[in-house]
Automatic annotation (TrEMBL):
This is DUF1330 domain-containing protein. Residues 2-93 form the DUF1330 domain. InterPro entries: Dimeric_a/b-barrel, DUF1330.
Length: 99
């Protein structure tokens, strides 16, 4: 089953966060990840509002976890740690219903 990264982010240092994004994109793509949503229009309905929302789909749960733990992604993440407040969850997708 495919899996989703779902991130909710408040950027506190745009320059440093841009360096994160520059490294994170290639790391995600290298693990088969594709962006479904990336900082677009949104409306907060419940919970904590964070202005940047990102969803990426990976070919499997294991691929999503491997991406996060990869040296390439961790190098990019070092830029985000002091430049943002983030929540990130990896969720395995539900299979489509049988017809």
């Amino acid at each position: 089953m495919t899996a989703l990264w779902i991130a909710h982010v408040t950027v506190t240092d745009a320059d440093a966060y841009a360096k994160y994004a520059q490294g994170a994109g290639p790391a995600i793509a290298a693990h088969g990840g594709v962006f479904l949503a990336r900082g677009g229009r949104y409306q907060q309905m419940e919970g904590n509002d964070r202005a940047r929302n990102v969803v990426a789909r990976f070919p499997s749960f294991d691929a999503a976890v491997a991406c996060y733990n990869s040296s390439e992604y961790q190098a990019a993440l070092a830029y985000a740690k002091g430049a943002s407040e983030r929540d990130l969850v990896i969720v395995e997708e539900t299979p489509p219903p049988a017809e």
